[in-house]
Amino acid sequence: MLKIAYDPIYAHPLPEGHRFPMLKYELIPGQLLYEGVIGRNNLFSPGLLEENIITRTHDENYWHQLRDLTLSPKEQRRTGFPLSAQLVEREIRIAKGTIDGCRYAFDDGVAFNVAGGTHHAGSNWGEGFCLLNDQAIAANYLLDNKLATSILIIDLDVHQGNGTAEIFKNEFRVFTFSMHGANNFPYRKEYSDLDIPLQDGVSDGEFLDILKTTLPRLVEQHKPDFIFYLSGVDILATDKLGKLALSKDACKARDQFVFEQCIKHNVPVQVSMGGGYSPQIKDIVEAHCNTFKAAIDLYF
């Protein structure tokens, strides 16, 4: 059974002026339930995460500043959020949902987090609506508990996974792959193990050709025993921040190809949603829901 991490706090952590980007986190499960794609039993609400698991990935001083709400105004502006206890709790629950999703993925092949993909959070900073890096925390959890020995992180959000790259720059057991817009945020990039910067206006065929040439080779070479997939839909032509030109069909084909590779090599995968900033919320929700549908079609 497909298991999906979701909690109402995902959607309501912010003052009124910041809520639009968060609406999708309640609309995605709502739409999937409405269409009968999933049932209530597919959803689970993650708990809180122990501090020692957080500080395995994030600097202890940075974590204490988050926990104690003492980030400086400059550091808060970098995150894009006004810091609050509810926002910090949200990030903790997202990270716990990704860890729990890994355990479900070992049983079912795939598991989802409705939120997550907080790949701009580095070891000692928050940035770009990311405070704690959920997939990095989960990857370290798998390594520390000997649940995985070789991990591949596939980041296909339009923005480079700079925080993830920084966290794992000296960790040979985690291979970071980011395929992103070259001229997009973050403007100071980190170095992933493999970065593929895309020029503005990349279309369906070019994007999919690059992915289909690259990903099978990475899986063959590195033989991961676990994969994390960040499936941002800000690659869409409709996205106001993305600068690429992909259709919803190509976005779904991207997801299908990633899942097909995971199935072919019998590697479990945890999926976090990442970004999506199209002006029409329906475009964001439909594209994200297509990722769930692609997994259900292939796995269940």
From TrEMBL:
Residue ranges annotated for the Histone deacetylase domain, each copy included: 25-290
UniProt-listed GO biological process terms: epigenetic regulation of gene expression
Keywords linked to the UniProt accession: Hydrolase
SUPFAM superfamilies assigned: Arginase/deacetylase
Hydrolase as UniProt keyword: yes
An annotated Gene Ontology molecular function: hydrolase activity
Highest taxon, organism lineage: Bacteria
Keyword Cell division tagged: no
Family: Belongs to the histone deacetylase family.
Protein name: Acetoin utilization deacetylase AcuC
